[in-house]
Amino acid sequence: MSYKIEMKDQIMTFTIDRPEIRNAINDEVMVGLEELIKKVHNSNPRVVIITATGSRAFCSGGDLSVFHELKTEEQAYPMLKRMSEVLYSIKTLPVPVVALVNGAAVGGGCEIATACDYRLVWEHAKCGFIQGTLAMTSGWGGATYLFETLQHDRALKMLSDANALSAEQLFEMGWATKVVKDQADIDEFFQTMKKIRPEVHRAYKEVAIRKWRLNGLKDRVEAEVRRCAELWAKDAHHEAVNDFLTKPKK
Ligand SMILES: CC[C@H](C(=O)O)C(=O)SCCNC(=O)CCNC(=O)[C@H](O)C(C)(C)COP(=O)(O)OP(=O)(O)OC[C@H]1O[C@@H](n2cnc3c(N)ncnc32)[C@H](O)[C@@H]1OP(=O)(O)O
Keyword Cytoplasm on this protein (predicted)? Predict the structure, then answer.
């Protein structure tokens, strides 16, 4: 199985479990995330954690060994749309969602982390919207969420630079909620959360969801998906992906 879903002490944890391919997202992981969303609505945890196996990567984005077969806009759009709906559902879960960034979060992996409410980033992790290096934009809603998260110039620069930033840089710019160096740092974050009753956390999450419903977040995500699908179909993107897939083995 490419993922795990566990519930302990009212904390539901989703773990991407494809470390050999840096926890890239394929159809099976998408199915798992869709299952997570249903479980959260049915079992009412106090908090959700999204993380991954190992320490090399949180998520390296879409699995290019699979998605490179999508050539046209019409072929790419359904995959982008499906994952954008997964991330919108995660964004609007009625409980706090924490990305425990255990390693590199790049491309769509950075989008997943940005769709979460909080980002606890291990000090060695590097994260970035590197889609620009593939001659395209984010395509799962991540850019839309980033403009909801950071001050405008920092969001636009993170997207346009298309590079991976250090945990300290991510904290300074306001993307990382906390840089963590050990389990104690993580435990401290959740201990603080546990001091307040779950219904208070849910009520404040409702305030954010109301804002997003009023400011057209879903429509803005759809426009991002459509634009990405257009760029996806161009030769420059296919050539960049091919370069990645044919790079010499380390
Ligand atoms: C689908 C659209 C989506 C979006 O933006 O909306 C996307 O995310 S597009 C995909 C964008 N992601 C990338 O371009 C990331 C590519 N990967 C990397 O930059 C690195 O692998 C990194 C930084 C995540 C980790 O580097 P590290 O040196 O630790 O590992 P390797 O690069 O040697 O990778 C190990 C092994 O995994 C394969 N790999 C890694 N990422 C992907 C991926 N996203 N898709 C497919 N395969 C991936 C890599 O090729 C290596 O394979 P091997 O056969 O062992 O050489």
Answer: yes
Please tell me the pTM assigned to this model: 0.98
The number of the ligand 1 atom at minimal distance from the alpha carbon of 241 is 14
How many angstroms separate the alpha carbon of residue 144 from the centre of ligand 1?
Answer: 23
Given the CA of residue 83, which atom of ligand 1 is nearest to it? 6
Distances from the Cα of 17 to the Cαs of 47, 73, 89, 93, in angstroms?
20, 29, 21, 22
Structural domains of the chain ordered from first start: 3-183 (3.90.226.10)
For residue 63, the CA-to-ligand 1 centroid distance in Å is 7
Q: What is the ipTM of this complex?
A: 0.97
Which atom of ligand 1 is least distant from the CA of 232?
2
Phi/psi region, residue 47 (left: phi>0; alpha: psi -120 to 50; beta: rest), is beta
